[in-house]
Amino acid sequence: MYTLYTDAATQPQTGLSAGGILIIHDHQQTQVKTPLQATTNHQAEFETARIGFERLLAVVTDPAQVTVLFYTDSQLVSDSLAKHYAKHYQSLVDALLQAQAPFQLVLTQWVPEKQNQGAHTLANQALHSAEGFK
């Protein structure tokens, strides 16, 4: 079983976004900070989640045998995955569902921001780094 936490941070004035990804397996953590193409926070949350699953796929030997506990503090991402639908973000929902498809089972859970501090901190660190390079 793998646990995946994702979060995004966006600077509305500049449109810069970055993501934080935390993968936990066998008490080992993998931390990822990544710049994003997204220019809004909702887009950034979907993009970070998709990248998180892509990174996870790269380290898993047999995804068809893997259960993923996926935690997000984005109510939109959580609800959209449950419904397989988001009015203004359907292409992002579809891309995220496709990234999840190789895994045996993905259990998505919305958590409050305070329970997602690892990914939140990584996202903010990545955003501050991106702001320093613009």
What does this structure look like?
The chain is built from four helices and five strands. It has 134 residues and is an alpha/beta fold. The protein has a single domain, classed as 2-Layer Sandwich (Nucleotidyltransferase, domain 5). A five-stranded mixed sheet has the order 3-2-1-4-5. The N and C termini lie far apart (38 Å). GO terms for molecular function: nucleic acid binding; RNA-DNA hybrid ribonuclease activity. This is Ribonuclease HI.
Radius of gyration over all CA atoms, rounded: 14 Å
| Helix/strand/pairing category | alpha/beta
Choose one word for the global shape.
globular
**Strand portion, in percent?**
25-35%
pLDDT averaged residue by residue: 95
Poorly predicted tracts of residues: none
Number of helices: 4
Widest beta sheet: strand line-up: 3-2-1-4-5
Q: Architecture, CATH level 2?
A: 2-Layer Sandwich
Biggest beta sheet summary: 5 strands, mixed
Return the string of H and E elements. Answer: EEEHEHHEH
- CATH topology: the name is Nucleotidyltransferase, domain 5
GO molecular function, one term: RNA-DNA hybrid ribonuclease activity
Domain RNase H type-1: 1-128
Organism: Levilactobacillus brevis (strain ATCC 367 / BCRC 12310 / CIP 105137 / JCM 1170 / LMG 11437 / NCIMB 947 / NCTC 947) (Lactobacillus brevis)
Pfam families: RVT_3 (PF13456)
